[in-house]
Design a protein that fits this description.
It is a single chain. The protein is an alpha/beta fold. It is built from eleven helices and eight strands. Strands 1, 2, 3, 4, 5, 6, 7 and 8 form an eight-stranded mixed sheet that branches.
């Protein structure tokens, strides 16, 4: 269709500047429609955490940024890194750079004989815990860093206390960020559990892999949850202990997620869950496909935004 031409002969078809202005208005409208404080909840899922990096970029592009970041396991690591480097394009670029290097994958070796020998000789995470700690410290998560030092967003990290059967969260001003990140990623046989103040802390995914309830308890009035769970790599007719155990744990995880969502929504807090699943199932230990996973996470989230950010 030809553009309308007024009497002065000039086209009224919007130029690029006008188009960008219109897009900015709609982005601001989308941001204003969300209740504050707004929380991003980043679930656990190992190598699937790369999906969250792309999802965060898509959310930031339309002006949706959190007041609260809550993370479990790899989601806690993503949340911490973003909180330290900023809720902006520079922060996303820094997070992407970490996922595009082999650093994270080296922390969690998948070589089965290596893992088996560590279990046999009762070396559950002793050496690896030191390696993981050194990695965190090298990336700015030092022993003297406290949650009070993080500015611009409230950060909470979630772990599971196996002594008391409760969810433990780190995020008070006096809490150590390093202790929190070690606790939320403490997953034997790679990382030894953290024992402190009568607590026996392991990976937060054991009790709250998508910590929606924690976000609500910490003051969120609207929640965007980035879920990494995926049951597609479990064949329905698979037999043996490993498929059974994986199906068993994944089903519990889904049940807990649904219960937390229902609880929070019953208190009038909207929860928007974006299920980050690639075109093909991605193993939680497959860190070799981070780049395509980031791209897919971006595309999935853009699609969710275009369709109303609904689950």
């Amino acid at each position: 269709m030809a553009p309308f031409l007024p009497s002065n002969g000039r086209s009224t078809q919007p130029n690029n500047l006008t188009f960008c202005f219109i897009v900015a208005i709609f982005c601001n409208m989308a941001r204003l429609e969300l209740q504050r404080p707004l929380a991003f909840v980043l679930g656990g899922g190992g190598a699937r955490g790369a999906f969250q990096v792309g999802a965060l970029r898509a959310l930031f592009e339309v002006g949706i940024k959190p007041d609260i970041l809550v993370g479990t396991s790899i989601g806690g690591l993503n949340a911490t890194y973003l909180a330290l480097h900023g809720l902006d394009d520079a922060g996303i670029l820094a997070l992407e750079a970490q996922w595009k290097t082999p650093g994270i994958s080296r922390l969690f070796p998948t070589y089965s004989p290596y893992i088996l020998m560590r279990v046999i000789f009762n070396r559950l995470g002793m050496h690896s815990g030191k390696q993981v700690r050194a990695y965190y410290e090298a990336h700015g998560i030092t022993p003297d860093l406290y949650f009070s030092d993080i500015k611009g967003v409230k950060l909470y990290l979630v772990a599971s206390d196996l002594n008391n059967g409760t969810v433990a969260s780190f995020g008070e001003p006096e809490d150590s960020v390093l202790e929190g990140i070690m606790a939320t990623t403490a997953l034997p046989p790679w990382v030894h559990p953290l024992q402190t103040d009568g607590k026996f802390l392991v990976d937060g995914g054991a009790m709250s892999n998508l910590p929606i309830e924690v976000a609500y308890r910490k003051g969120a009035r609207e929640i965007i949850a980035l879920d990494l769970s995926d049951m597609r790599n479990i064949a329905v007719d698979a037999h043996g202990f490993s498929p059974f155990y994986t199906r068993f744990m994944t089903s519990i995880d889904k049940r807990l997620r649904d219960l937390e969502t229902a609880l929070v929504q019953a208190h009038g807090v909207p929860v928007h869950t974006i299920e980050l699943r690639g075109e093909e199932p991605l193993s939680m230990l497959d860190f070799n496909h981070a780049v395509p996973a980031i791209t897919q996470g971006y595309s999935i989230t853009k699609h969710a935004l275009e369709h109303g950010l609904v689950r």
